[in-house]
Amino acid sequence: MRTEATTDGATGSAMGMTSPVDAELIARVQAGDPGGEREFYDRHVDRVYRLVFRMAGRADLAQEWTQDTFVRAFDRIGQFRGDSALSSWLHVIAVSVTLNGLRTHNRRESFAAPLDDALDTGHWPNDSDPDLKDRMRCAIAALPQGTRNVFVLHDVEGFTHEEISEQLGVAVGTSKSQLSRAREKLRVALAPFAPRS
To answer: Does 1.10.287.990 match the CATH number of domain 3-111?
Structure first.
C-alpha cells in the first residue's frame, strides 16, 4: 500500500490511516502515561493554536480554546478509531471548540454594556412594581428543577442548547422543550402584569 507524509511529519496510508508513531502515542495517552500526554500536547499545540487563532482573531481566545481543545481531546481519546490521521481528528475537535466558543463569545459581546453603564446592573429600577419582582422570583423558583436549570442557563446566562445539553447531560431537544415549558409557565404566572391592549 502506498504511503504519504501527513501534516505532522509521520507517514500514513493513502486512506489517511493513523501512522504507527501516532498509534503508539495514542496507546500511551490512553494508558494514562503523563509523558505520552505531554508529547501529544507538544507535538500538536502549535498547529492547533494557529488554527484557533486564525478562526478567533484574538490571542487570548485562541489560548483558552486551544487548552479546551486538548482537554476535550484527552477526555475523548478513547473514542479515536484510527480511521483518520490523529492531526485530522484533533483539527475537528479544535474547529468544534472554536465555533462553540465564538458563538458564546459573540452572544455575550452583543449584550455587553460599557463599564460606565454597568453601575446600575443587577438593581431593579425604583419605579418597577415590587409585586412583579416578587412574582417573577417566585415563578422562577416554582419551576421544576430541570426546567428551571435550562431557563436560567439559556435565558439568564446565555448558553446555547448544545452547551446546556453537554452541561446537564440531556438531549438538545430536551433542553429546547424544557425552555419552552419554562417560558409558558412564566407567561401564565406573570399574565396579570402583562400590558393590556
So the answer is: no
